[in-house]
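step: validate -> pass
step: tokenize input -> pass
step: predict -> running
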Amino acid sequence: MNIQIGYALSSEEHRPQDLVRFAKRAEDAGFNFAVISDHYHPWINRQGQSPFVWNVIGGISQLTQRLSVGTGVTCPILRIHPAIVAQAAATAAMMMEGRFFLGLGTGENLNEHILGLHWPPVDIRQEMLAEALKVLRLLWRGGMSSYHGKYYTVEDAQIFSLPEQPPPIMIAAASSRAAEFAGSVGDGLISTVPSDEFVKKFRVSDRGAEKPCFGQMTVCWARTADEARHVAHEWWPVAAIPGRLMSQLATPADFESAAQLVSEDALEGKVITGPDPEKYLSQIESYREAGFDHVYIHQIGPDQDGFFRFCERDLLPKLH
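step: predict -> pass
step: emit ->
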């Protein structure tokens, strides 16, 4: 299986102008695609950033020529109405001329609570996401449209700036049930777990048989393993916080409280650390063996330029 290698643009850690620069750097280094996170808050205050993703994508569209870019992931159920996401994604797809995909998920309380709306349980959020997808695809057909559903209403709306083809929609999944849901409604799968069970559930029907599967791996390259472990613990202790808490905690302060229970040793197995390319290659191979055909790498911390040099010298040539 041919693996496409991508780069994660971490909106929680970097200023918008740096994210645009990193996207160009990723393209020049030989990455095939990039995935950019869509947050209102960072996970913890140390990360310190959270620019509006659609502005950043506009900047990336003007500085890159080949790199495909997708959101990883946008939640279209509370903070932003699906009709607005439909317009934003259509504009991004026009500006990137076939290089944009829309990653969607059921979100986290961290970003979605800000309007004071009730944070529903996951089964309701999946219902809302399924209905949001109906709104997106309705508006992408063109023409004047109205929709009156259980969760969303659209009255006499038309997106006038539409790409020739609507962007593909990738659905995030962190459980077998969610992966099966993704296969039934999405054009691809996004997951942070190299699980063949997830891929099998996603491909449970013919509708998912040929769709792409994107896997995210979190790493911290540094000159030494000790430095990498320290940086990972300082910037991304949330890697060891259980999944249910990740979707339920409401503020960066809440995550910082939970992170106090996370040691550097607790990140072992959650984050690939250090300068040894074989550790990175082994993790990529685990995704390939599980059935993923796209893997994108999230480098923790401020030393993105060092990571790019490592990829150009020690990692990407071995993959190619």
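step: describe -> The mean pLDDT is 96.
step: cleanup -> pass
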